[in-house]
Write a structure and sequence with these properties.
31% strand, 5-stranded mixed β-barrel, single chain, two-stranded antiparallel ribbon, Inorganic Pyrophosphatase, alpha+beta, 187 residues
Length: 187
């Protein structure tokens, strides 16, 4: 019998309207101190670690399916939403920008989006529409959350608008297709 299984990274569609609107798979709910991530082999969610710092995730955090980046992971995404989003939930997300950061001397972009079907946030069309405190909170979280973990160093280089985010998403789709081929996704 052939061993086949469902893996959210490879078997969920990235969405028909990408890069403007993407499907995202949430790994970590807003407010969590647990760092959950997709186990690439099994497709299950695993607890990677509990954050050492007195911080918590400023937005729902996950990835865009069928994308691939130089860090050997799918492209990360932060999704702003007025309700808590449970892990492994698929969320249609409107892309509004990107946070470019360097984690341990490796580029690690984070797409910033809003839940497309949440009227409390879906009126935001670009990262420049967000309250300044929201971006400051994201910056502080990502620069601080690894500081107590064996002196790991993260630097948020800059926030950029949706056009730059679209380019980064398209690049990650191209790299995914070159690396894994075009797989059949469930829509």
């Amino acid at each position: 019998m052939k061993n086949t299984y469902f893996n959210p990274w490879h078997n969920v569609s990235r969405g028909d309207n990408n890069p403007q609107v993407v499907q995202s798979i949430i790994e970590i709910p807003k407010g969590s101190k647990g760092k959950y991530e997709l186990d690439k082999d099994s497709g299950l969610l695993k607890l990677d670690r509990v954050l050492f710092s007195a911080v918590h995730y400023p937005a729902a955090y996950g990835f865009i399916p069928q994308t691939y980046c130089d860090d050997n992971d799918p492209l990360d995404i932060l999704v702003l939403c007025s309700v808590d989003i449970v892990p492994m939930c698929i969320v249609e997300a409107k892309v509004i920008g990107v946070m470019q950061m360097v984690d341990q001397d490796e580029e690690d972009d984070k797409i910033i989006a809003v839940a497309a079907h949440d009227i409390s946030v879906n009126h935001y069309n670009d990262i420049s529409d967000l309250p300044p405190h929201t971006l400051l909170e994201m910056r502080r979280f990502f620069e601080d959350y690894k500081a107590l973990e064996h002196n790991k160093h993260v630097v948020v280089e800059r926030f950029m608008g949706k056009e730059d985010a679209y380019r980064i998403i398209n690049d990650s789709i191209k790299l995914y297709d070159e690396t894994f081929g075009q797989l059949q996704a469930i829509k």
